[in-house]
Amino acid sequence: MKLFKSKVFILLIVLCLSAISWLVYTKIIIKPILNDSKPAEFSATLAYEHVKYLVQKIGPRPAGSKAELTAAQYISYVLKQNGWKVREQPFSKVVIREASVLQQEQQVELISSQNIIAELPGSLPDTIVGGAHYDSANLNAPGALDNASGVGVLLELSRVLSKVPHQETYQLIFFGAEEYGLVGSQFYTSQADLSAVRWMLNVDMVGTPLEIDVAGKKSAPPELIKQVTALASDSGIPFHISRDFIMMTRESTHGGSSDFSSFLDKGIPALGLGIFGRPEGYYHRPEDRLERVSLDEMQKIGEYTHRLLTSVKLEQLGPSVWDELYLPFVLGSNVFILTSNGIRCFTFLTFLGTALMLMGVFRKDIEKQRANWKKVFYILGVMLLLSVLVVGLSGVGEFLWSWIKQVQVLHHAYPLLFLAARIGIALGIFMAVASWLHKVPLARDPQIYWFTGVSLLFAVSLVLALIRIDLAFPFVFWLLCMVMQFFLPNILLVLLGPYFIYTIHFELINSQQWGSFYEALHKYSLIFLVIYSLLLIPLFLAALHVAITKIQLSKKILNHIRKPALIMISLLILSLGLVPIYTRSYPQTVVVREEWSGNNDGLLHIFSEERLPHELVKDLNAQEGNSQFVPILNELAPINVDASVVEKNKDAMRTLDISFMLNYPREPYLIRFKLESSHPFEIQTDDFLPIAKLPKKIELKGVLQPSGNYSITLQRTPPHKKIIHLAVETEGIMTCTFEAIFPDLSPRLKIQNTLLSVDYEIQFKESYDF
């Protein structure tokens, strides 16, 4: 048996290393061709002036707003002054947002905006595209870093590129409505002839450390990644590649994080430049002001972007096909790419070695292994109970302090501290419980634990590999570590195995998606309890395999570690109470909203998801809580709505022709209708959402909700009509809620507090039963 072990181990390692060395490509293989012509100098000062104009002169630029249109006109003017051929591409697009775990009802939106397309012809038709979105996230976000900074860089590059002769044709596209879900870029790629495009570079949030974003529904070609990262190394710019996001975003409904992914969807090589890491509290907030933009960073990224546009060369023109299931790895400034064939070979060899090992162990003593099946199921039951206990109790610190401080979200400012505390508490619970496991009548044969853990990982890896090979890689690597553990029982291999599971979570924490993930985790805690409990079972089995292999040493260590583990748990729970919930970098969000309904007097509503600060409540002379109201007396609402209905009945079906007449001195930004009924219903409207613009096979119907009612939300950005018709077919009573949102340019109550981020808006809301 020892000879069999050695042969299999040596064969597995040699084959895996040979396959990886054959199928891994380094960045040295492909280098960008540097442009020998002396470039005009990029000026961060001039780029900064563009940012300043967009942020201070124009302000927040949400999709479809008049401010966004003003920004488009400014961008067009600058491009024309720099000698580019400029055209506007207006669009109105209907976006369907299906019901999800965080949004229960379907939402249908009509978004109107425009793309600004500039072209600088060269001697060749070969086209290189640079892109940046110029809209901001909402009515209160000035959008300095996101993404006036990217617009400023491209506008300055339009000046620089126009000064030097060039063979390629350059195209700069400034996208509208990116914040609504890449609407502008998706519209552009659906209409444009892309046959002459070599590649596309998108700039969204300028700064370092640099995030080279290659992850969309498709991934950027490896050839492009190698050239772009090589130039980053040559430029001395620290960078990160969104490797794990490749796995998380493929085949998703949203796609990538910015406009480059719309080009990837069409087979055009593309990637994006942004800032790596979890965005600070100013992201999509009123604090995204001019001071967030650094001249030094703009100079560095501007020069780098210029080098990319003039030096990166890809052979093929137009839409193409490339290996998409690769995985890039960054070691320092070196980039290694494991191709899809490399992943397949690595997976196959690991599966082959694992199968040989399992068969060898099973054949060693068939009768003994058959007798062990009852022990295996008993072990699995104990491990499941242990993992549920560990995962469930790991959140006791957050639960306790949420109750004491009366807040829902403790992690707002320091999520990494709470995550580290949760892991520490889980580890302490495991060590404390494990110290008593010797009293549980479990099998003392380490081979059973190894065999069970490897079998579980083998089954999971095989299923994932059949679904998508790159998705299986983290588990295949874990499986390989457990196979090696048979020969080298070591706690380091136990902890190394789930390494790529850890990194996926690290990517998630250092991203824009962390907030929504944490919200989903708390809202569906039972589902996540099951998922993480199942993930811990192979880890616990691997740990027990090592512990029982060295049982005397393990008992000694666990007996000595029990009290320190309990002390560590207590200290971690107590220390969480010292972590501030809000800081200047991550302030509490507060909304100050004028609320109007019908002919009633208005109310000034000040509210937050958490309790309002004591100082603010004291200034308002109100009671403690999440919400405060201040009456607005003797003033008219910002909009007047007259609703009427004409009803026709046929059998049990009611056909309602509903009309809304709107009278407003200032056009609202957003108009929304929420329709709800206890019976199914269908809507027809060309005034509010043109039916011709709806995606094929999409009908405006009520969606069944957990409450048992049917509902749907329709909304649109400007321009708005003052007469809106809705035709509804239903059997029951229809409730229609009309809502209009206005920007509050001069708020009645101005709050100044460094620990608060305040949104100001005006809302009119009225419900009608038909």
What does this structure look like?
With 770 residues, this protein is α+β, with helices and mostly antiparallel strands. It folds into three domains: 284 residues, 3-Layer(aba) Sandwich (Aminopeptidase); 231 residues, no CATH class; 130 residues, Immunoglobulin-like. It is 43% helix and 22% strand. The longest helix is centred in the C-terminal third of the chain and has 26 residues. The chain starts with a helix and ends with a strand. InterPro entries: M28_fam, Peptidase_M28.
Q: How is this structure best summarized?
A:
By secondary structure, the chain is an alpha+beta fold. It contains 22 helices and 23 strands. It comes from Desulfosporosinus fructosivorans.
Gross morphology = globular
Q: Which CATH first-tier class of the largest domain would you pick?
A: Alpha Beta
Q: Beta-strand percentage?
A: 15-25%
Task: Determine the number of helices (DSSP H or I, runs of at least 4 residues).
Answer: 22
Number of strands: 23
* Structural class assignment: alpha+beta
Helix content class:
40-55%
Here the CATH topology of the largest domain equals Aminopeptidase
Cα(first) to Cα(last) distance is 81 Å
Measured on Cα atoms, how large is the radius of gyration?
30 Å
Detail the poorly predicted runs: 25-30
What CATH architecture of the largest domain would you give? Answer: 3-Layer(aba) Sandwich
The CATH H-level homologous superfamily of the largest domain: Zn peptidases
